[in-house]
């Protein structure tokens, strides 16, 4: 890794956070940190642990080594970083799965559609309890779409 400093890691974290529309609070909630800890990372008062680098990389949609390349992140810590980072939270992955379930609802007999949609709506409500602020809009859109289809099924059977 080149030790030429392109930008301090804290400045890069702040730039990526703002570019992706996150607040310090939303990043803190997603990573299990305090907002103050995120502020300290962005101002360079502290360096993130390897775990936090991996979580930040996943949040920003890049690999851990790309996140810290050309920054002041300690070389000894860089050597311990994994090559890849997970990209989806549990809620985001479950939303994708529920979207697939919605596609097969139309193939069900009309009498079974309302039950299937009610089950999907209950799963969305459960995810809403566990979701974080950034995912609330996606959950709300999914709830509205399922509720609309449930109303359509109900009016078609009446």
TrEMBL record:
* PROSITE patterns assigned: HTH_CROC1
Q: State the species of origin.
A: Actinomarinicola tropica
List the Pfam families. HTH_31
Q: Which residue range or ranges hold the HTH cro/C1-type domain?
A: 13-67
MF (Gene Ontology)? DNA binding
Protein name stated in the entry = Helix-turn-helix domain-containing protein
Q: What InterPro entries does this protein map onto? A: Cro/C1-type_HTH, Lambda_DNA-bd_dom_sf
Annotated signal sequence range: none
